[in-house]
TrEMBL record, chains A, B:
It comes from the Bacteria. Gene3D superfamilies: Jelly Rolls (2.60.120.10). Residues 33-119 form the Cyclic nucleotide-binding domain. This is cAMP-binding domain of CRP or a regulatory subunit of cAMP-dependent protein kinases. Keywords: Kinase, Transferase. It holds the Pfam family cNMP_binding. One of its GO terms (molecular function) is kinase activity. Transmembrane segments: none annotated.
Amino acid sequence: MNVYKGILNHIARYVELSESEIKEFISILKTTRVKKRQFIVQPGFVSEYRNYIVEGSVRVFYLDDLGKEHTVIIAIEDWFFTDFYSYIHRTPAEYYAEALEDSLILQMKYEDVEELCSRIHSLSQYFRLFTERSMAYSYKRTISNISKTSEERYWEYVNKYPQIASRVPQYVLASYLGISPESISRIRSRS
Amino acid sequence: MNVYKGILNHIARYVELSESEIKEFISILKTTRVKKRQFIVQPGFVSEYRNYIVEGSVRVFYLDDLGKEHTVIIAIEDWFFTDFYSYIHRTPAEYYAEALEDSLILQMKYEDVEELCSRIHSLSQYFRLFTERSMAYSYKRTISNISKTSEERYWEYVNKYPQIASRVPQYVLASYLGISPESISRIRSRS
DNA sequence: TGTGCGTTAAGAAAAAAGCTTGACCTTTAT
DNA sequence: ATAAAGGTCAAGCTTTTTTCTTAACGCACA
């Protein structure tokens, strides 16, 4: 199936699965279409799934007490997203995951993933390796946030992810980088 | 606290609570902010709360097999809403409650309400009286639906709730009155 | 057998979202 | 002390999305 091509490729970059393992894995995937501005995860409901984007884009953000949004994930094709805390602990989510475009996502339930991972060693390996890599990136981002200026962070992101930067609304990027939209506007006009 | 003013006033229209009763009541209220388009209740999840709107607006609707939406409640400030069946019976909801605007709501859990009502007579009275009044209105609406023409229902609603009619999208009102949006458009142009 | 209302499709109108700019303020690193 | 960096607020502009209207057509039923 074509929709699975991306995610199977993603896995293949880390481990090798047998035909039957691939079949089993595919069997736990739920295909879902969401429309722009639709919430896939929202506060109050448990984030049941790990989500993989086949097509489209999504952001995950937190709404603070002052009503300010803090984007923690900007995801496009071939990326995963979820409210990880909620997903792992089965507690109500505290984040929103919102489609930035009409999107096609693959969803896998916590229990199904756990069950498969407990039986299929290489799949477990895959999630471990991939998650570790994500962690490493996450640290990098934290460091960047505390040590660099707004302008540096902005250009760093734009250079690293030019396709994403031009695809998502500026205020999303702003809330991801911890900069005001106005400042981004000024940074851009300076160049 | 200012956010409680509305709901305490609502209660005061029916019964009188002592200071300590008010305190107890307030202690079971959870303040929640929701964003436009966010679902507060969703099919598949138990509607845990009775919800009171401090600010904003919400609609409750049913999605039929043909994908058509039937709005059963349009609620603004000082109104309550929930999927009542789900709330009372602790079964998965069949309705959506969706914020039409960014809103601030007060939520009270079923168990907490029951517990308080079992101890505080006037609070129990309040919910009884208020619910009875809602029931009476509900019957009225049913009768209106079966005995009046689209046009009559439309004007009836607009006259009774002009603020709401001008505030919510017409297609919501249409799906509440059981009229097509196009017909509403024609009704309006006729006047 | 015409009136009332639904459906579909297209366009117009209105509203919301997104971006920019200026004025002004606060923090912080010289 | 003060300049640079970046935040906030408010206003205005542009673009996109949503909502409303209208026309054409069909069906049911009084």
